[in-house]
Predict the 3D structure of the following.
Amino acid sequence: MLIQPDKLRKLLILIFSALFLFLAIQIRFDMLFMHVIDNGASLVIQNLMPRGVQNWISLGGLFAHYWILVPAMVFVSSLLYEL
């Protein structure tokens, strides 16, 4: 196992739960910190990554449209059903 069952698991659960709650509150109330993270990620993606990686990341934006996402979900679920 990558993480020992008894030693770090409980600590990691607490850390990631607190991080999740912090970011969820930031998103819910549209706070400045989320805009800083978003602008920093956009800066890294647009200026520091190779063009091929940028193209793959931009393909993920297509999944914001339900008319693309629903057929993709049906396709993936049909593949997984066969397994």
Remarks:
- The mean pLDDT is 84.
- The longest helix spans residues 9-28.
